[in-house]
């Protein structure tokens, strides 16, 4: 069954801010619920390895959703995601996000 994969990259210049965002993703992974149940099927997050190809993006995130509806809920209604945005928003220099339906 196809799933929705969402890739998000952050540029966060300050180490302490980066650590706070990474910690907030850990909270999100434990607290994101829809209709009282966990709905994100997988979260992978970490500091990017230094590489010129990452163009300064230094935090990488992959979230997996069972459906487009779940991803849209994440984007618009999820309280755990709102809490994450409150932490990451003020400290990010830039963000890049994309999502796709996996063909595998």
TrEMBL record:
The Stress-response A/B barrel domain, residue ranges: 4-100
Coiled-coil positions: none
Transmembrane segments: none
InterPro entries according to UniProt: Dabb, Dimeric_a/b-barrel
Superkingdom, natural source: Eukaryota
Protein known as: Stress-response A/B barrel domain-containing protein
Source organism (scientific name): Aspergillus steynii IBT 23096
């Amino acid at each position: 069954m196809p799933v929705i994969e969402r890739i998000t990259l952050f540029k966060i210049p300050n180490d302490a801010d980066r650590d706070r965002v990474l910690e907030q993703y850990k909270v999100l992974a434990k607290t994101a619920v829809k209709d009282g149940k966990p709905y994100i099927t997988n979260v992978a997050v970490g500091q990017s390895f230094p590489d010129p190809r990452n163009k300064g993006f230094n935090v990488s995130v992959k979230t997996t959703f069972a459906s487009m509806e779940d991803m849209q809920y994440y984007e618009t209604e999820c309280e755990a995601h709102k809490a994450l945005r409150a932490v990451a928003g003020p400290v990010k220099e830039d963000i890049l996000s994309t999502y796709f339906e996996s063909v595998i």
